[in-house]
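Continuing from the previous page...

OK, I double-checked the sequence for DoxX family protein against my notes and this is the correct one:
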Amino acid sequence: MKKYFYIRSALSVILLMHSVVSIFSGDVNNFGRLYLDTIGFSPFGIYLAWIVKLIHLFSVFLIWSDRWVKIVSVGNIPILMLGIYFLHWQNGWYVVGGGTNGIEFNVLLICCFLQLIFTEYPSLKKVKSSS
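Thanks. Re-ran it with the corrected sequence; updated structure tokens here:
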């Protein structure tokens, strides 16, 4: 069994749903044009939105195939941190319950990715030679 199977599975499902749904619904275009462009990223808002969604989508397949998991984690953490800064911070901590659209979910995802970064993978360890 792969290390941290449940964390990797949860991250994969979350990234898959977050990317695929917004791509097919057209929300990624709206996010780029109607939000990112208006907060100062114009004329690159739509491109940034697509880059984020494609990184999330490709991350799913890399996590499932156990390839470049640390790089995927390092790539997704800044996206989540920028999401906290630009979108969620002003809404407080809670996603639901004590508030809406807060930072708690992003913080949890960042912690999950940090776990993957600091996990030792047997294939990456150097084999000690016996002398």
